Amino acid sequence: MKITEEIIDHIAHLSRLEFEGEDKKVIIQDLERIVNMMGTLQQVPTDDVEPLIFMTDEYNSLRDDVSEVSLSQQEVLKNAPKKDSDYFRIPKVLDK
Fold this sequence. Notes:
flat, mainly alpha, two-stranded antiparallel ribbon, single chain
């Protein structure tokens, strides 16, 4: 697949990015390498390969949930730009 400037412009528009000049040329080269790598991977025979579902044989290896206080409420609030007794003050974000 040939990566054209039109494809780059379309991708840039969809992702709300801007590429101009040398940046656009670099992006074109990078995407062409990615597409070529996918083509190479498609040629690898995978008929006898089982799908990989889990990366490890371990099942639900979880740590114990131990609560601990790392900062007090007063310590956290002393760095707040605005506070109201025990709470952070923030700008209103919802209207009725």
